[in-house]
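sanity check this chain:
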Amino acid sequence: MIVKQKTLRYYYWVAVEFAKKHLKLIVVSFFLSIVAIVSFISFSPYIINFATAKNEIIGVVGTGQINNLPDFILSKISNGLIFINEKGQIISVLVEKWDQSKDGKTYHFYLKKNIYWNDGSLFTAKGINYDFKDVEMKIINDYEIEFQLKKPLPIFPTYLTKPLIKYPFVGVAGLYKVDSFKSQYGNLKEIYLSPNKSNFPYLVYKFYENETKTINAYKLGEVTQIEVTRQSVLDYFASWKNTVIDKNVDYTRLMTLFFNMNSDYLKQKDIRKAIISAISKKQFKDEGVESIGPIPPISWAYNLNLKKTGFDPEMSDKILNKSMESSKSATLQIATYYDYLYIAEAIKSDLEKVGLNIKINTLSYNQPSSFDMLLAYWKVPLDPDQYYFWHSTQKQGNIANYNNIKIDKLLEDGRSVTSVEERKKIYFDFQRTILDDAPAYFIFYPYIYTIRRK
């Protein structure tokens, strides 16, 4: 009994001395434990939701930038002031209405009320951050904003479709909101989206430098979904039992062979048409959907009656033989990027069969300052207004240095009216004219293969 009392007394004094010696550590640990328990209780619903909800981890090729999110992410987390539907009609999203001055230079937009940013703050005119060249923006009050143009532009509202973003990634009335992100030197590495509706999955986007690294990430299980353009990749994944492959067409990009209209040789319309007739599109059938003109077939302004340019190497050879021998013997350069070299090689082979000397010049990421022909994708706008790409005054966007009075007039007319039917007639004529004049060869819209786990 005496031994037991001594033992209890011993442990008592040991505990007292320990408490005295480590009192500060005990107090801090106690408060940290309380904070941890409260935090767990507060955030446990979100943790449980993320753990139990369907999550999609998507591998993306390229480097996303903090100041320039990819369109497919922007459209998920925010909205523009207006939306254009598949019929070309303008639909109000964040605005109640708008009006235009008699001279067509001033627009007033009146915002809807009780609209909120994804962070819970009220959306007002102060949050509109569009930056247009030659357009002055003025806030009248919280729910009215004015745009002052230097020249009349009846289709100006169509430029207000870009989703609005408040730094860093706060959208307005989006289906998703950004929970967190990881970046390095201003480039996004990962971005996490949570849904604003309960039946939507959580989304995680991981960015990789190139397609090869993205594919490897899928193999290693880092991501559950990737998009690729190379059909050769599909054969590898076709045997994976837990993988599904979906095939779609990207109508926002158009593989095109641009002719430099400043070239003395390529200025000749017959020469350009002969080059086009010498190239077989059938060899690209696995790359994408054949294109006829610069406006995609899903557009309300697409002309169904366009005449295809047939593959006729014999005719091409005759036309080229009529041209000056010195010109035909000269070397024409096809400038392109590394990823499109195999397409350039196929074109080179076809053109050499009709007697042309072709050299391929591999480019870096920058647009070349000089070339004979340029093989590249260009981003096709949602609206058929392609003023930026083909009007003679557009030195930056007009890659081909194209100058055609009729095309200029049609592009000007197309943006001077708002009636869908009137614009359709104008753009039908635009497509016929540009196809006949051939400043470029429109080849295909690429297939996009989505590889995802079941």
